[in-house]
Write a structure and sequence with these properties.
By secondary structure, this protein is an alpha/beta fold. The chain has two domains: 3-90, Winged helix-like DNA-binding domain superfamily/Winged helix DNA-binding domain (Arc Repressor Mutant, subunit A, Orthogonal Bundle); 93-339, Rossmann fold (3-Layer(aba) Sandwich). Helices cover 51% and strands 15% of the residues. It contains 16 helices and 13 strands. α6 (93-104) packs across α16 and α12 runs antiparallel to α13. The longest helix is centred in the N-terminal third of the chain and has 20 residues, at 12-31.
Length: 340
């Protein structure tokens, strides 16, 4: 029997205490300066209980408290890093990661505790994992593609910037989609390039164009150069989209959205709509990364959270076994429930 399982049987109160103090410490780290009442509301704990715990954390030199609120110390930061793996083990996430990797038949799975939809610290934890994964695989002359959307915007906003200068290029994986500048692939690509200390190549075209407009855009030298950069991409960071959400973002007619859903579409990637088994339902012509190119990539990081993304993750995971998935506990457990 593993050590953690022994402790759970002999002294389950110790496990609960570790979990509670870790969550308080993590909440302070991500929201500092923060007061006891805010932590109490965020974690659903009684304020008196929070006060007792933060006093212990302060006595241990893990946090500081002043008139503005609570701050994490350097010792506290180091402990959070050490505890993150332990917390995953306590929640049983390590075994779930292995099970999910096998079920999806992909390269690797990383699961963050909690649910993306209810806990704003989950996206921060995801960004921390993505930062490390990218740092480990990036090489000089790499071309990194990134998609738009709320998830990618959230990841890049929380990215852990370093001081390195890198000989890399970041490019949008496809044209712009939607009216929100903050979630446009161009904006996200430029910001990621800045965070990584590299350069960027933007794509000044909308996501979808008809045949005549598409041919006209290809006559533009800058557009042709941008598409060539995308074709040479060797790393992709992308968010996994639900079919209904992406169809609405593209402002497809209601009857078309209904048709896609009636045919079983649950996921969208690069203009292609898929059912839960990865069978293509329909293609919306886009400018940027092609499905054929996606299937040949060896370095792919897919990010999605929330149990409502479970079916979409299942579908997209069938397209390339090289994919590394970063997700949350809610989505992971939902996927396993669907598969089983």
């Amino acid at each position: 029997m593993e050590t953690i399982e022994i402790i759970k049987k002999m002294a389950p109160e110790i496990i609960e205490l570790i979990e509670k103090r870790y969550l308080i410490l993590r909440s302070i780290f991500y929201n500092q300066p923060i007061g006891r009442r805010a932590i109490s509301n965020e974690l659903g704990l009684k304020e008196r209980n929070v006060r007792d715990e933060v006093n212990i954390l302060k006595d241990q030199g893990l946090i500081n408290i002043d008139n503005m609120g609570m701050y994490i110390t350097e010792d506290g930061k180091e402990l959070i890093i050490e505890l993150s793996t332990l917390y995953g083990d306590l929640k049983g996430l390590t075994s779930i990661e292995k099970a999910l990797q096998k079920k999806l038949n992909i390269k690797k799975v990383y699961i963050l505790p909690g649910t993306f939809l209810e806990d704003n610290t989950v996206i921060k934890d995801m960004a921390k994992v993505v930062t490390k994964l990218l740092a480990d695989i990036i090489q000089p002359k790499d071309i990194i593609g990134i998609t738009g959307g709320n998830t990618m915007a959230g990841i890049v906003n929380e990215f852990l910037k370093d001081s390195k200068k890198r000989d890399i290029v970041v490019t949008p994986a496809r044209g712009g989609l939607g009216s929100d500048l903050n979630t446009q692939s161009n904006s996200i690509a430029a910001k990621l390039a800045d965070q990584l200390g590299g350069s960027y190549k933007l794509l000044y075209v909308p996501d979808g164009l008809d045949g005549e407009a598409f041919d006209h855009m290809l006559k533009n030298r800058e557009v042709r150069e941008s598409i060539e950069t995308i074709n040479q991409m060797n790393i992709l960071l992308f968010g996994i989209g639900r079919a209904d959400t992406m169809a609405i973002r593209r402002q497809l007619p209601t009857n078309k959205v209904d048709e896609l859903l009636n045919k079983g579409a649950v996921a969208e990637a690069f203009g292609h709509y898929f059912d839960i088994n990865g069978k293509e339902i329909w293609e919306y012509k886009t400018i940027g990364l092609t499905l054929e190119k996606f299937k040949t990539l060896e370095k792919i990081l897919g990010v999605a959270g929330g149990e409502d993304k479970a079916q979409a993750i299942l579908a997209i995971s069938t397209l390339n076994p090289n994919m590394v998935l970063v997700t949350d506990e809610a989505a992971a457990r939902k996927i396993l429930a669907i598969v089983d």
